[in-house]
Amino acid sequence: MSVIAEIIDTLENKIGKLFLKIKSLEKNNQELYIEIKNAAVLIQNQSQEIEALKTQLETLKIANALLGSDDNKRDTKLKINSIIREIDYCIAQLSD
Questions:
Q1: Neighbours of 43 (CB within 10 A)
Q2: Which spans of this chain does the record mark as coiled coil (predicted)?
Q3: Which residue ranges make up each domain of the chain?
Q4: What is the pLDDT of residues 62-73, one digit of tens each?
């Protein structure tokens, strides 16, 4: 076998190995992409759940204050005052 034929064989082997490596990396990349998409969906769902729980917590705090809980009376009064100001603002906007 000539030197040129050996070089060609070596190059063909290396190209074959590189091709397999590329295919493997493409598959791995696709798997990681799917994993990232799944993680993004999970994060979005958890964020929505957190927001729902925050709303629920705020509602519970107000309910406790209305039931006579001393801990949250001040917060409830502030929240009611804030809502009243918002209603007054809306009424003023409607009057214009």
A1: 10
A2: 8-63
A3: 3-95
A4: 777 777 666 667
